[in-house]
Amino acid sequence: MRLPQKIHWEMKFYNLAKSKRIQCGIVRMSMGWIETINFVGKEYYTKSVTYDLSRKQFFIGVDPSKLNESGDFVLICGGKENDLSDIFIIPWGIFFETLTKGEPINTYSPPKEYLQYKFYLRDRDNGWSMIVEKGEKRNVSEWHYNVDEALAFINSV
User: Among 30, 59, 69, 81, whose Cα sits 20 to 30 Å from the Cα of 9?
Assistant: First the structure.
């Protein structure tokens, strides 16, 4: 069975912003993925994830070391099949405060250890929720955008 190719949704979003002449620059890359972008003078920690159609959700992990950093927003770029379709732009403090209501989980098999906060973005009842494993649920519908709305938002902040 062939595994689906990982798509760099955050790179697609970044390139769209550049094509619209939005002031932006990559601040940091990690293992070939954009980790931080500066849009119009604001820092965005980025995540890229593909939608699970059968479960109606995105599933994402965040390294606990990110809690020691600061920024303005968390940008989650998601796609369905081959289309960039869902953008979440969540204020930095709200995002990380929600994560800390859960516990980091070891994502490797013992004896190796790599801790991550794991969470879902679920599309239920015409709204989006962020559900942190071993934590809490928060409505994030107000921070969900289609691509054009997200580009307009980052250009206006």
Answer: 69
